[in-house]
Every structure is written in C-alpha cells, then in structure tokens.
Amino acid sequence: MISVSKLLCGLDAEGDGLRYDAADESSKPQITEKRQRRPVVVWNTTKRCNLRCEHCYAAADHTGAPGELTTAEGKALLDDLAEFGAPVVLFSGGEPLVREDLPELVAHAADNGLRPVLSTNGTLLTRERVRELQESGLKYAGISVDGLRARNDRIRGQEGAFDAAVRGIEACLDVGVKTGLRYTITEHNVADLEGVVDLLVDVGVDRFCFYHLDYGGRGAQVADADLSPEATREAVDRLCTLTREYHDEGEEIETLLVGNYADAGYLVEYARREFGEEHAGRVRRYLERNGGDPTGERVADVDPVGNVHLTQFWQGYALGNVKDRPFGEIWSDESNPLLARLREREDHLTGRCQGCAYRDICRGGSRLRALAVHGDPFAPDPKCYLTEAERASG
Amino acid sequence: MVEKTNRNGGECGPRSADGRRFEVFLREDAPDPMRHVGTVAAPTPDVAHEEASKLFGWYARDIWVTPAAEVHRYSAERLGRSAESADPPQNGDGTAQTSGSTEEPRVREETEGTPFVRCGGVVPEDDRDDETDGRPMTNHGGSDR
C-alpha cells in the first residue's frame, strides 16, 4: 500500500508508522509506532455475500463454504493472531456483515489488542449496525465502490448496490466510524475514477484506496479487462494529479495505491519530474522503508475454512490451515521452500526485474500475476509499466 | 510407556472454500523424507501436480498430492480447543462416550521404540493380533490396558 498523498503532498496519516517507520514525523495518532514486523491479517470470515462482483478474488457467492470457522474457532484464531503480534485484523469475506457474530468477533479482537477493521460492500451497513460495531471496537470500514452508479451496479451484479453502499458510507460517517473507499481499477471503470472521488468527497469521505486488479478468484476470469501497462500508467498519473489538485484547494484527502509496486518506481519518477531531485530522493527513502510488495511478509490471509494464504488474492495456494497449527507457526515456518524464497525474492527474480534499479522498492510486484501469466512465481510482473529508461535510472 | 499425547481425531472434511484442494508433499533429493508444504486448489490430482510444480518445480524431485478432504487428522490441539482441556463427548444420557467417537482423546504409548496410534474406538479384528506380539495398543477408554 503506497500513499500518494503522503509521498507527493506530505500528508500525515495514521499509517505512517506502520508503512514508513515515520511515526515520529506524523502529528496523527499512529496504528503502530514502529514499522510492522508482523503481517496485517485479512480474515475472510465467510464466503457468503449478498452481491456477486465480477472481479471478486474470493469468488464469493450467495452461499457460504462448508466448514467455515465457527465463533469459537474464530476467537481462537484471533487469540493466535494477537499472541503472534499481528497489528491489524481485517474482517473481510464474502461479505462479513452476513455473519451475525461479527460484533462479537470484532470485540474479541479489540479486547486482545488487535486493531479490528472491516472490508465490506457497505450495502448492509445501517446506523444501528455501525453503532454496534463501533461499540465493539471497530476502527475503520473500507467500503467497495467500483464506479459511478451504472458501472458499479453492473460490476457488482445488482441494481441499487451503489446507492446502498453510499448509504452505508453515510451511516459510518454519521456514527463516527472512519471510512474509506476501495476501488479496483479495470477497463470497465477507469473512466469513473475522478467522478467517484468527487462524489464521495462531497459525502464526507477523505480516504481513497485504489487497487490494481490481481488475478485471483474471479479476478483471473476478468484478467482481459485489466488495464494495459500504458493505461495503468495513465490512470496512476491521473490519480497523482487529482490528489495534488485536492490538496492545492485545501482538501487534504488521503489517496493510496495497492497491488502493483511498479507504482513505487513511478512515484519516484513522477516526483523527480514534477518537484525535482530532492523530493524524489525523499520519496525513494520512504519507499525503501515501506519494503515493496508485501506478499508472504507484511500481509497474510486466512480464508473462511482456515487456510493461510500468502496474500488475500492468492487463494489457490495455502501454506497450511489454522485448524492444524497456530497461525504464527505456519507463518514462521521457513522450511517451506516457497515461503523462504519469497522472503528473499530480490535474489531470485528473473527477466527484466534482474537489472531494474527499482527492484529494492518494488521487489518484483505481484507474484500472483507473474504466476498466472508466466507460470512462474519469480518471473516479472506482467503489469509492470515502467519504461526501460526508468528501470535503468533508479 | 514413555510418552502420552492426547489427540483429537477425525478432522476429515471440507478444507476448501473454493472447490477441491490437495495436500502437497515434496522430496528435494532421493534420500530426503517427504515434506508437507501446504495445499493447492485443483479439480484433479494431475492439475494439482501441475499447480504444485509451478510453485515448487525449482525445488522438488518428487511431488505427491492427496485430496485434503480425505485426510483423517489426529492432532494434539484443535483450533479453539486443546485435547487436554476438551470435554469428552456426551452420550444422550449425559455420560461420557468411551468409544466409537471421533472426538475421543487418543493416547499414544511408546514402548520398545515403536510408537503407534490407532484411530477409531473399536479395535479392528485384524489388529487384535497385535496384542500378542508384545507391542502395546492404543487405549480406547482413557485407561491403560
């Protein structure tokens, strides 16, 4: 996760300590004072969802999966995560709000020192439910909107989903739970990028996370709708411009990019072009501390039946299952040769990554896309959009 | 008897939220033991082998796959409940079950360097002969034979 608003506009945020080891430089309360040593854990609490989005990495459906973790098992998982030192647990799905025990699980996470946050389609959020989650200790709700009304509803497979999600956002804002947008950029919705930000700023949202498409679950089935490298570059450039325009007007929105660490190299190049060498050097140092693509290191995923994945998008392979071993043992077991090699992947990347000057702040980008397209988890990310000259410059 | 480990058993069921999964085992070199390295989602053993090869082909000499849903797991701990603290399963009248239950704690005994564990509450006919060859059998009711 790369903060465009921090790197280009100097915006302080709660995640500065977590992401850049820059808590001392921030005036905002911090999620953690030190850069994370343990992964943020996404827990897909259920496969069940009231929507059926075309790019869903979890391939969620209207029915749950047999063998999903029970309330007791979920609490034991949260105990394991707390003991291991995970800083944040992201309750996700499917749609986590279809689980009636969600407030109980959120409260258990909070009581054990985890920061509970939520990833939801927002359509089931009412003021009452938000209030209940807030009282349980919920700190943040990321709500998925993938375009303006018509495009969003087409992508999400349900008319009215856009209006329901906006009502959910308003419910969070009314109750006082911090909320932000989650937006997966594809050819199907890239045209709406600015429109959605403009609309949601008016509603009161000030945090916007833009995800590049990764090729897991139904995301793999719509890979042909992924942006070309050139179109990706243009979309990132538009987001940079949009962020700067808002900040220039005194509206300090937070904008973040997720899922394609070519963005790291591009932001250094952008800063050099727009602000000069000194600013570019500062951006690069932040990104060195950030650590590049987090697969198998700073992000982990536990699916509805307890399988532990390298990222939430990489559901096709699991390191183990929390029903068999505690999460921390699975995550720390580097006798697994893939896990060990991923954690030293700079030495094993192939092709154009080998000579890339941004290899240290990118670390190869998405290993899942490399696997999906090249059949090799150490091949170059097919969606790297840096030019040959940029890869040579550093 | 030099060691006892209570195990909860019978964990044999869905291990996938996305279709069929296969447990993957690797051997790096001929003298090495097989090593468990997780699971892959795949519809058939051949596809599972293909998927595992993409991930581990650079490392493994041998790759074995087996359907995750067909593995019977007997473990000292289960998520949310350790075998030590687990209440025994109850019969309809509230008394503890002593056999025939997948929830029954297992006892591992080790004698003469040959540990083994039986699963299931009833001693199979074929196994009863084992009692006569000097090797101890797993306890089925919580007390030593």
TrEMBL record, chain A:
GO MF terms, alphabetically ordered: 4 iron, 4 sulfur cluster binding; catalytic activity; metal ion binding
CDD domains recorded: Radical_SAM (cd01335), SPASM_MftC-like (cd21123)
GO biological process, one term: heme biosynthetic process
Keyword 4Fe-4S tagged: yes
InterPro entries from the UniProt entry: 4Fe4S-binding_SPASM_dom, Aldolase_TIM, Elp3/MiaA/NifB-like_rSAM, PqqE-like, Pseudo_SAM_Halo, Radical_SAM_PqqE_MftC-like, rSAM, rSAM_sf
SUPFAM superfamilies (alphabetical): Radical SAM enzymes (SSF102114)
Protein name: Pseudo-rSAM protein/SPASM domain protein
Organism this protein belongs to: Halorubrum vacuolatum (Natronobacterium vacuolatum)
From TrEMBL, chain B:
Region of interest: Disordered: 1-21, 78-145
Entry-linked InterPro entries: CHP04031_Htur1727, PaaB_sf
Compositional bias segments (type: Polar residues): 92-102
Superkingdom: Archaea
NCBIfam families listed in its UniProt record: Htur_1727_fam
The name this protein goes by in its record: RSAM-partnered protein, Htur_1727 family
